[in-house]
Amino acid sequence: MTATIHIADVIKHYNKVEAVRGVSFDLAAGEMVALIGHNGAGKTTLMKMMLGLIRPTRGTIAVLGENPAAGEFSSRRQLGYLPENVAFDAALSGRETQTFYARLKREPVQEALALLDIVGLGDAAKRRVNTYSKGMRQRLGLAQALIGRPRVLLLDEPTTGLDPELRQTFYDVIQKLAAEGTTVLLSSHALTELEERAGRVIIMNRGLKVADGTLEELRRLARLPTRIRVKVANLPPAGRPAWLPATASYRRINGHIVEIDAAPNEKIELLRSATADGTAVQDLELIPPNLDELYAHFLRHAERPQ
Ligand SMILES: Nc1ncnc2c1ncn2[C@@H]1O[C@H](COP(=O)(O)OP(=O)(O)OP(=O)(O)O)[C@@H](O)[C@H]1O
């Protein structure tokens, strides 16, 4: 794998604040990676170092094979960035803003203007940015970040302020780019929407990387219980169902459903005993741990005294 982004043992101090404490990871072409963590975890700092806006205190950063903090960072043109708080000249229209950035990046203006349609701002292109809603400004920010078909796209909390439909459009656009080979790194607090979309998740806590992997890998590592919901006919109104092992933790959801927490190695045995003794199982649902639960698990783990 040739890494488009290479981060090795990176440390960043702002005076006494240790914002990033020895982080390493590589990102490849076509990967869509979510960077998650509480406020102050170091996500924005990492992105700013990838952009060359600030330098690491120690460690190595390479973006498309170059050091972004070096004087001649020719790969910058292949880098798209959507900052957490987009700010545009309110007196310009969307069209003028996009033209301005295209010229700045020395990219064809017509292609940059076509991006306004892609992010759904075609009809509002001639309106001044100060008449735009927050979601519209966010989409203008994305259109700006997409100028020149970047090979690396860094998005800092890109979906804040977007309604569900716009979020979908937003992810459609960046997923298409990733499919064409762009590396997409996006920081977010919206874990539920990332769950189905990010191929890989990096969890940060107080400047440290505490987990890194696909959802399946994180589930394997965390070994959190899977919830098994069994719908049974004739469930006795109270008491523990006879087929349930004495040690299993469970709850009743309503008159018919028992929800059991099953450790990864107990799943099959539990299903066997639920169906073995003639209990009329009417339905079955397996609910693996979601990203919220995994995130909470890895943070707990990181905070545990060593
Ligand atoms: N310019 C700065 N000077 C001093 N401290 C800073 C500076 N920028 C960030 N920090 C500190 O570095 C730590 C990491 O901040 P960073 O902005 O990278 O976090 P984040 O994960 O992006 O948070 P958020 O989710 O709130 O955007 C925080 O403790 C923050 O207060």
From TrEMBL:
The keyword Transport is assigned to this record: yes
Transmembrane annotation, as ranges: none
KW Signal (keyword) present: no
UniProt KW keywords: ATP-binding, Nucleotide-binding, Transport
Domain ABC transporter: 5-231
Pfam families given in the database record: ABC_tran (PF00005)
Gene Ontology terms, MF aspect: ATP binding
Family: Belongs to the ABC transporter superfamily.
Role this protein plays: Involved in beta-(1-->2)glucan export. Transmembrane domains (TMD) form a pore in the inner membrane and the ATP-binding domain (NBD) is responsible for energy generation.
Name recorded for this polypeptide: ABC transporter ATP-binding protein
Organism: Bradyrhizobium denitrificans
